[in-house]
Write a structure and sequence with these properties.
By secondary structure, the protein is α+β, with helices and mostly antiparallel strands. A hairpin with a 5-residue loop joins strand 1 and strand 2.
């Protein structure tokens, strides 16, 4: 266990982990949607989907479902979150858009209602992909939708009203993508502020002359600054990271937890060690929880008092 002050996690690594979590949710969503569409297609009485071109719908939905299952399986073993990076995410979303447009085309175009799933793809694109490249996704979806409506129009399958509906769908695609991008930028800005504040706090704590230690319930050190390391250094642990409190301080901590008002104690880290003053404070108000320990050299305090 690292007992140094925890270094602030890298912002990019945090964002990658967030995108990975979003992608996993999206993967399960895609498998669910593909399964529902396949079940609807296999129900001949309803004919809600695939009624215009059953062969195209059948081939596309099977390919779409198989690809989604493979991506889910791969993501389970993707410990480096490779799929959450920009290019793999863009490829997955672009594949989604193409497959959804084909399924929509085989079902009669925008009037089938399947175009609404493109809105979700565009929205997830705004959360998974950072920058202008994210806006390319709703553009691809809109262009393919318009081409599909033109194709179906020449086949006398739809009417001019479908172009108006396609236009509304295009507006919804860009709005969903832009909104999620905006929220994503705001979240990343807040994260940057928190990280910067954490770095400042860490620098202040590291440079404090007073020793600061955060101790768990069982006496293990969760956090310690350099001043505390110097004050607690003993001959048998010099040069090594402290993992637990010296037994003398641990005993004083146990006594403090049992006492009702006592806050400060004086102790020695070992027989020939210097005299230290320790102040205890419970982090959560419960003395049996993690404890914040402030350490000072009592001889220096006495000199300052004189």
């Amino acid at each position: 266990m690292d007992t140094k002050l925890a270094s602030t996690p890298d912002i990019e690594e945090q964002q990658l982990l967030q995108r990975s979590a979003i992608l996993k949710v999206y993967n399960y969503y895609r498998v669910f949607i593909a399964s529902v569409l396949l079940l609807l297609f296999l129900e001949p009485e309803t004919q809600l989907v695939g009624n215009v071109d059953p062969d195209l719908f059948n081939a596309t939905i099977l390919l779409y479902l198989a690809a989604n299952i493979l991506i889910v399986v791969f993501s389970l073993f993707d410990h480096k979150d490779a799929l959450a990076k920009t290019i793999p995410s863009f490829i997955i979303l672009a594949m989604d858009i193409v497959c959804l447009v084909l399924l929509m085309s085989a079902s009669g175009g925008v009037s089938s209602g399947l175009g609404n799933f493109l809105i979700f793809a565009s929205a997830f694109g705004g959360g998974l992909i950072v920058g202008r490249i994210s806006t390319v996704l709703p553009a691809i979806a809109f262009i393919l939708t318009i081409y599909d409506e033109i194709y179906l129009f020449f086949l006398d399958i739809n009417t001019l009203q479908s172009f108006f509906n396609a236009g509304l769908l295009g507006i919804a695609l860009f709005l969903a993508n832009t909104l999620i991008q905006y929220l994503n930028r705001q979240l990343r800005a807040k994260e940057g502020e928190v990280v910067a504040l954490g770095q400042i706090n860490q620098m202040v704590i590291e440079r404090m002359k007073m020793g600061i230690v955060v101790v768990s319930e069982d006496g293990e050190i969760r956090l310690i600054n350099k001043s505390a390391e110097l004050l607690l250094a003993t001959p048998n642990v010099d040069g090594k990271l402290l993992k637990t409190l010296p037994y003398t301080l641990k005993d004083r901590l146990s006594e403090w937890k049992q006492a009702s008002t006592r806050q400060s104690v004086i102790f020695h880290t070992y027989e020939s060690g210097r005299e230290l003053l320790a102040n205890f404070s419970a982090l959560t108000g419960d003395r049996n929880s993690d404890t914040l320990v402030f350490l000072e050299d009592s001889s220096e305090i006495q000199q300052q008092a004189q």
